[in-house]
Design goal:
The protein is α+β, with helices and mostly antiparallel strands and 284 residues long. Helix content is 43%, strand content 28%. The chain folds into 3 domains: 15-100; 105-204, Sandwich (Immunoglobulin-like); 217-282, no CATH class. It starts with a helix and ends with a strand.
Length: 284
Amino acid sequence: MLACSFSDALCLRYTHAKVKSCVKKVRAFLDKHVPTLVVLALVILALAFLQHYWSDPAKAQTIGALFSFIASAILVGVTWEYVRINQKSFSLQQAQWEQQNRVVLRFGVRRYRGRAQVWVANIGRIDFLISELRVRLKNGEKIVKNERRIVGSGSRRTFSLPDKLWSNIPLLSTFDVQLRYESQHESGHSAVRAFTIFIATNSEVLKVLRGIEDIWPVNCPKCGHFGGGMVTESLDNFDDALERELVMKSELQATCPEHSSQWSESVEHLRERRKNGQGTVQED
């Protein structure tokens, strides 16, 4: 009894799979040949009507005109569908071409022999030229270095940074870096990213961290007094820091003279963050 039930179940599953496969094949056939089948059906129907009403020329002429109109309408519909499919295919090909010819780069700052340098990795399919290296200091000073170096697909190149960023500077230095790139099909600028370098007493670079690890003091705009240091976690660059500073200033002004803000950096929080390394990524 159990053997029969198991056999019946297998037969049912096999039959169901076979029917499902046949239905899928029929649908595929219809999707591919529907226009042709419709035109053939109309031709056969038109011939049948013409044969039936052959003895009555007026009716035969009217039916012929009707089928000619229907055939023309179907032809227009088929042509429109063909154009639509071609446009969709062209848009897809264009998107693929743009994706393949898009500049895709990654960059950062690393420590190398007591100095700091920018590394640029090309993870796209086309070569590009690095034409400019832009550095912005915390005080707003900008340094622009003209470069003419090609980064091949799948390769990485390094670029030196000015000694001014760490020479005769105590403890640490924070700055923004942005690159200008050019390729055969496009040109533009990379994202702006901030980095912090820790410096020894002999002006040697000890460590490089991604982000802003420097103290960011903020004064109250109402009384002009020091309102506290600003939390710099999760900030990508100085522009983000300035936006957060505006928020903090408005909160300090609203709570003057207590000077309370969600972005005020406490000593305990600063010590804990630097102890655990939260929010920072070591570049080298």
